[in-house]
Structure formats: structure tokens, C-alpha cells
Amino acid sequence: MGGVNQTENAPVLVTGATGRVGRVVIDRLLDAGVPVRALTRRPGTVTRLPAQVEVHTGDLTAPETLDAALNGTRAVFLVWTAPPRTAAAVVERLGAHTRRVVLLSSPHRTPHPLFQQPNPMAALHAEIERLIAAAGLESTIIRPGMFASNSLAWWAPAIRAGHAVRWPFGAAASAPVDDRDIAAVAARTLHQDGHVGGDYVLTGPESLTHAEQVDILGDVLGRRIAFEELTPDEFRHRWEGTVPRPAVDMLLAAWNAAVGQPAYTTSTVADILGTAPRTFRQWATDHSSAFARYA
Q1: Residue 265 above 80 pLDDT?
Q2: What is the pLDDT confidence band of residue 7, given thresholds at 50, 70 and 90?
Q3: Which of 80, 84, 196, 282 is deepest in the core (most CB within 10 A)?
Q4: CB atoms within 10 A of CB 159
Q5: Domain with 165 in it: what CATH number?
Q6: How many helices (H) and strands (E) does the chain have?
Q7: Which residues form the domain of 194?
Q8: Helix H or strand E segment including 28
Q9: CA-CA distance, 175 to 141, in Å (whole number)?
């Protein structure tokens, strides 16, 4: 493959560099002494990145803008944040410039009803995985389940305002995984040997329903937070115009299918990092200020 640099000192390119996972991947790579490049669509966001990071402007929707960032890299952390139409052209450019790709995907192959509902994002991930394999790239697929940080968007506004959390399928269980654990696994697979061909489903350590997660947030904050069940139609109406309808329908179908059975959990975080994954309570404690009442 032309332009491939396989030396130890070649940089790793991180896409989605200012996102909730990519930003922490950068820190973990720097901690390991790995040179890092960051890809950003908005140069103004680079002030959030450490000074030693080499920043490149590029856009997954314009594959020709990626060449400078890719040239000479030893690996790429790929977070797909664009429509699907340019996926094939982007993967073709990856194959021309680098050898390794670690893809942040989804657990669409996991045999649990929460992950087996129709999902446009899962279909896109599956196609990107196929393209990477067809390009002959050495790959590792990272498949996080539900992010613990989803609760920031879902519940923090109501909790900060002192209101009840109104949400559907309170009995639907998941195993929320901490973004920091996802990033640590991704960084380890980017610079450590032995992970080529890895297909890793990442979860938190425990099965928790929506209502139980809200109870934990209340415990951490030192106050009771009421949980009020919404119907699916009420939930659709509440998020209309804010979240695309297919995404809302996908979530409702997944939660409905998950009611009445424990969440799917794996030991993958511990297997790779040698430390137990953070619990949802640990995540909530570390992010409690985001749920604190308005002054």
C-alpha cells in the first residue's frame, strides 16, 4: 500500500478528535508516548487539544481533504460522523496511506434484543466494516453498548431543574459503559500489538434499568429523583423536531425489546485494560456537577 509508514515513531490519526471518546483517546495515546494527529472539521476547536497534537483540517464528506492528515500514519481511529455516501472513498484513502484502522462501531452483531432492532446507524457501521475488510486493512472493531454519558442529554436537564425524570420503559435494562473505558480500550488497541482482527463488545459491569440508573443519580446527588413513565407516543411528541424520528423509533423498539431481561455484559474492558470497568455509580459521581440543581 503506497505511503504506508510502519515505524514506531509514526503518528496515529484520531478522527472525531474533539468528541467524547476521541478526545480521551488522544490523552491515552499521549500518555503512552504515541505521537498523535487530530482531524477536525472546525479549526477553531483545536484550543481544546494538547499543544503536542498535530492538528489537520479535513472532512469525511470530502475525502480529498484527508490525504495530508493520513500521509505517514501508522494507524487511524475512525469515528464515522458523516452521511454514508463517502464511506467507500474514505476507506479507499485509508488503504492508500495507512495499515491499521480501529473503528468505533456498534454491537449490531450481539445476540441480545436491545441491539437487534432495525437501526440505520448499525447498517452504516456494518457497511463500513465490510469496506475495511475488503480494503485489506488490519482492523480492530470497538463495539460499545449504551454510553453512560447518554444520561447527560436524556435526564440532566430535568434533574438540574428539580423535576421528575419522565421517560419510557423504566424497566428496560442496559449495562452503561463509561466513555473513558471505551477510549482507553481504543487507545490500547491502536498502539499495542495483538489486537489485529479484534472484535470487542464493550459494556459496563452491571445490568441496570432506566429507573435504577435514575435512582443511582439521586443517591449520588443526595436527593430522591422521581421517575415517571412516559408512553412511546408521549416520548415521540417530546423529542419531535429535536431528534430524527427514525432514531427515536429505534430507541423505543430497543428498550421495548429489552424489558424483562438482564442486559448483555462482557468482561472485555477488564480483559484488555487489566482493570475493572467503571460502574455507573462511579461515572455519576465523577459527573455529578452536570446534574446539580440550578442556582
Answers
A1: yes
A2: low
A3: 80
A4: 22
A5: 3.90.25.10
A6: 12, 11
A7: 12-146+177-202
A8: helix 22-31
A9: 19
